[in-house]
Amino acid sequence: MRILVADDERLLADTVAEGLRRLAMAVDVAYDGDGALERALVHRYDVAVLDRDMPGRTGDDVCRSLLESGSGTRVLLLTAAAGIRDRVEGLGLGADDYLTKPFAFAELAARVQALARRSAPALQPVLEQAGVVLDVARHSAWRDGRLLDLTPKEFAVLHVLLRAEGRVVSAEELLEQGWDEHADPFTNAVRVAVMTLRRKLGDPPVIETVARAGYRLGS
């Protein structure tokens, strides 16, 4: 899943982004509303975490623009204001959820994951194919009952392949969904992640390479 985090408190934004990346999410960061909206017009995000109180273009403004664009991005608003009126006002803008600062990262992560599931309601929290089982909520994966020790990128690649349900997934699509905007489109990061994932999945091989097209998970 791909997440946008926008907050003018740079340390907070970077800390949240790093925590979400450790949960195998691709995260882009903006430090103002203009940067957040610019990224949202270029990339498709499952969830946008927006500080309401950014100077200039606020999180409220970005939330309205996302709603008007019909992007389908779920919005979690952050604010230091804890009053009921503030929460009601934020949700009235079209936001999907609201969290007051200071907050526990575990709660923010749980809310982001819940919103991401709502952005793709057809997806099941547990995916299974060819003896491979992936539990999104628990961030765990198994093959034939054997627990797999996967890096966040390997987990993200496996998640995308399972979601594809046998469809061929291009390297570009894997890069878009599993890495952030700073990923070099000419890097071999996808190939390396697929290679190490194959090794950890073991025999018989289940990830097929389709020449000049990409990868798919076999039956």
TrEMBL record:
Q: Where is the OmpR/PhoB-type domain?
A: 124-219
Q: Name one GO cellular component term.
A: cytosol
User: Keyword Secreted, does the record have it?
Assistant: no
Spell out the PROSITE patterns in the cross-references. OMPR_PHOB, RESPONSE_REGULATORY
Which residues belong to any copy of the Response regulatory domain?
A: 2-116
GO molecular function terms noted in the UniProt entry: phosphorelay response regulator activity; transcription cis-regulatory region binding
Modification type 4-aspartylphosphate: residues: 51
Keyword entries, A-Z: DNA-binding, Phosphoprotein
What this protein is called in its record is: DNA-binding response OmpR family regulator
